[in-house]
Amino acid sequence: MVHAGKLHREGAPEPVVLPFRGSDAQLLELVRSGAPQAGRLVFDRFAPDVQRLVWHVFGPDPEHDDVVQMAFERIFDSMHKVRDGSRLRSWVASVTVNVARSELRRRRLRRTFFPARSSDEPLELWHVDDHEGRELVRRTYALLERMPAQERIALVLKHMDGYPIEELAAVCECSLATVHRRLAKARRRFSELAKRQGLGERLAQSEDWKGLS
Questions:
Q1: pLDDT (average), residues 196-201
Q2: 161, 52 Cβ separation under 8 angstroms
Q3: Nearest by Cα to 59 from 131, 2, 179, 140
Q4: What values do phi and psi take at 20, rounded to 5?
């Protein structure tokens, strides 16, 4: 078996045996050493996290894969700056959130100047079995579209991803006091929007949103 730290005589790292089962800290060391398969290893390990975060922030979105790609481009470009490998997963989430925040703001500006774009149409919710469920998802994300980016992200990470408040503050790169205020504002705004659209009771029965309406 090839060991991660073993080098060829020429000084280049040997390929890593897949699947890689080392720690995040060991994975970061492979990235720093220039291991040939490091990029693939990073993608394989964190793609589910990035995909989930992007889905929860944007919902059924035709540009989902583009946002995921942008997140990984930022991850690969900046990973050399990470010092604590044990915090790598949290850092990946933070980078993904920053990319999502920038994309939400870009889209808001785009809609301001180009309000009618067919690319903004949602994808078919093939993984939601019933028509009512698909409709609820669409209407929920229509509400989220009307919220400021930072409030929207805090809300979905807390209620859909289940982030503890301390981790939420770290991923959003803000203080505990700030994330508490942001989350409180987001909950109030979302509840008011839901009630105006007649979704309050339905969302109150949802596992993700119960307690908000």
A1: 82
A2: yes
A3: 140
A4: -80, 125
| Domain final residue, candidates 89, 123, 157 | 123
> Could you tell me how far CA 27 lies from the centroid of its own chain?
21
What six digits make up the tokens of 28? 């970061």
Report the pLDDT averaged over residues 78-91.
93
Same domain, 210 and 134: yes
Q: How many residues does the chain have?
A: 213
CA–CA separation, 51 vs 67, rounded Å? Answer: 9
Shared-domain flag, residues 98 and 138: no
Q: pTM for this structure?
A: 0.81
State how far the Cα of 84 lies from the Cα of 62, in Å rounded to an integer.
Answer: 35
Residue 147's CATH number: 1.10.10.10
CB-based burial of residue 154 (10 Å sphere; 0-12 exposed, 13-18 middle, 19+ buried)?
Answer: buried
Residue at token pair 């290893």: 41
- The string of DSSP letters for 176-199 reads HHHHHHHHHHHHHHHHHHHHHTT-
Are 110 and 66 within 8 A, CB to CB? no
Looking at the structure of the chain, the number of domains it has is 2
CB-based contact 166:176 (threshold 8 Å): yes
Are 155 and 179 in a shared domain?
A: yes
- Domain extent at residue 149: 124-213
The last residue of one of the domains, among 62, 90, 123, is 123
- Assess contact for 137 and 156: CB atoms under 8 A: no
pLDDT value at residue 111: 72
Furthest C-alpha separation in the chain = 69
Average pLDDT over residues 115-121: 51
